[in-house]
Write a structure and sequence with these properties.
Layout lengths: L2 H5 L20 H21 L1 H24 L7 H17 L2 H21 L6 H26 L5 H25 L3 E3 L3 E5 H22 L6 H26 L15 H23 L1
Antiparallel strand pairs: 1-2
């Protein structure tokens, strides 16, 4: 097997999506089937053991970085995957065993290693952009993903992780429902034409319901569900827009065709990643601090 081919994916090509089955603009049966399977795998890993969940998060980090590398390759930008994989998994493992300070240390060490790697490779016009792109990918994927592991290892354990997932799902479902049936005012038409302020309102409504329920379930004050809902809605929307901006910038419709009806892995993880540190910080203040 050509290892360089694995660590240097060619530019991702646009794929013909599955035929749309309704107003959502995607194949709903395929999307629902993949979504249920994805949720089942995640729930099984969460409930089985912390180690299995750690392995799942690490695998998703590796795949997500590979997807981003293929996307940025369309603009002749290189994510230094060997170091990004080692450092990314190192951040996730550090979150599990050592905590947030170790995650920050692993991030700093990985960025330093990437800079040295590129400089030793011979300075070119690509050196600085490649270092910056790799640094962005490290922060966007493994650093944010590390907060999920921190939530898992918190006093809330599985309840915290499941609440994080439910809040992210509520954002998606609320935005989809209100956006499809009521959406008239685009939020950022140059970045994501289908995202509307009505959809944002739907995300907020659904998130408030889930947030209040989650706080009661976890033993916190119910009113913390409202700031949690507002912050997670803003974070999830920001995650969607950031990923849409990347795809628009590199000329992709979907990050890949890995998940039928959804697109790429990052098309599903974008909001989940952005929501993770918000959930971690709010729950820490609201419940276990």
């Amino acid at each position: 097997m050509d290892f360089r081919r694995i660590t240097h994916p060619g530019p991702t090509q646009n794929h013909v999506p599955l035929p749309s089955s309704g107003r959502a603009g995607r194949n709903l049966p395929a999307a629902i089937g993949v979504g249920v399977a994805f949720a089942a795998i995640g729930l099984a890993a969460i409930l089985f053991s912390k180690t299995s969940f750690l392995v799942l998060v690490s695998l998703l980090v590796v795949l997500a970085l590979w997807e981003l590398a293929g996307a940025f390759a369309r603009q002749n930008r290189e994510i230094v995957l060997p170091l990004a994989w080692v450092g990314g998994v190192g951040m996730v493992v550090s979150a599990h065993f050592l905590g947030l300070e170790a995650v920050l240390g692993a991030l700093a060490l990985t960025v330093f290693a990437v800079a040295v790697w590129k400089l030793l490779d011979g300075p070119t016009a690509q050196t600085t952009p490649d270092i910056l792109v790799t640094t962005f990918a490290l922060i966007y994927v493994p650093f944010l993903a590390s907060f999920v592991v921190l939530i898992s290892n918190s006093p809330l354990g599985n309840k915290g992780v499941i609440s994080w997932i439910l809040l992210s799902v509520a954002n998606d479902l609320g935005g989809w429902a209100f956006g499809i049936f009521l959406g008239k005012h685009p939020m950022a038409p140059r970045i994501s034409p289908k995202k509307s302020w009505e959809g944002f309102a739907g995300s907020l409504v659904f998130s408030m319901a889930v947030g209040v329920g989650a706080l009661i379930w976890m033993g916190g004050s119910w009113w913390w569900g409202f700031p949690l809902a507002v912050l997670t809605t803003v974070a999830a929307t920001t995650g969607d827009l950031v990923e849409s901006l990347i795809k628009r910038d590199v000329g992709l419709k979907d990050m890949s065709n890995l998940l039928p009806g959804h697109g790429g892995l990052m098309d599903r993880l974008d909001s989940l990643l952005m929501v993770a540190p918000v959930v971690y910080l709010v729950l820490k203040v609201a419940i276990w601090w």
